[in-house]
Amino acid sequence: MWQLSVIFCLMPTVITSLLISYDAIIKNFRISNVRMFQRYFILLIIYAIYLYFTLSFTTVSLGFYCYEYTLAIFISHYISKQKGKLLFIATPSLVFAYFLINNDVVIKLDIKLYIIGVVLLFASTFIENSKIPNRDVKILLILTVEMIITIICDFFVYNLDDFKTAFNVEILVFLGSIIIIYFFERFFRLQERQRDEINTALKNGQIDKLTGTYNFTAFEEYSEFVSKEYDDYSVSILDLDNFKKFNDSYGHLEGNRVLATFSQIMQDTMKMFMQESEYKIFRFGGEEFVIVFLNKRSQEVKNFLIALEVDLKTYYEEEETPDYKVTFSAGIKRIREKTFNGVNLAVELADKTLYKAKEDGRDRIYTYEEVFGTLNQFEF
Description:
By secondary structure, the chain is of the alpha+beta class. It has 13 helices and 5 strands.
């Protein structure tokens, strides 16, 4: 029963989590300036760590390893076809290295892994290039090929009793992989839907192309919606400090790079603290951004902006750009009632707070309540 629960329930959950984190890492590399060779090397190291964990966990829990090719199959199918194909070849060597580290090398098993890797490489290439329209059917076919070739290899490697055990394990791994398909397909479709929403917003002229945030047109629509539907939200205005002087000193191209970088760091930090449905970022023009937070207190927003300050400082320290540093000032206002034009009121009051932050020397984050006190019983 324990083996069944590990193979059929626990491992699919673990592998799905590993796949989601691997997908996030690859997306971050795509927007970074890391060289191609370095990118491949780092991703291979991360894959090796994930594979080592999978092998260790199954070996300790079950007494044997399994799911050794599952990560590579899903990466090649969903995340990166090119990198995934390379992992089919790398996996046998990584598994061999694992057993070498643990002083448990079996030559016949290593040969079996290389055979499976080569077969999967050709089978996945053929299936991906076929005219089969359904994505789920394609990966099911690849998993079926993996199961069949593994069972055939096991027949020549093990004695009859061990083969029966290995056969049952492969069937369970196949069924567990179907569970991974279900979970990861849901995650993948959610990502596709988000991309579609962004593309739709771009087509409708609601996305600022430089920063990837929503523009003022989108803000006007969203502010009306939030004012009518929500009775608790906070608005923050962020303004990059001395940005006009920066443009005069370093030029508008460098200024645009700073805006794009700041926006990316802001979005990455936001995703660490809250769900995307809880906030929206708008570029108001120039170096000014507005963030609308749903059901968040002023202090919660301030804590997030402090974290953003730290991330921004860390980024420029790691980039080793001593010529300049990038800071921002911010004002925050919370509204606690449904009111006509409530978001615009919050923007106006947050802007007054921002002005005070700049007046006090910039590089400061103030809430409206800290500066002016509460305006009425609806605010806190």
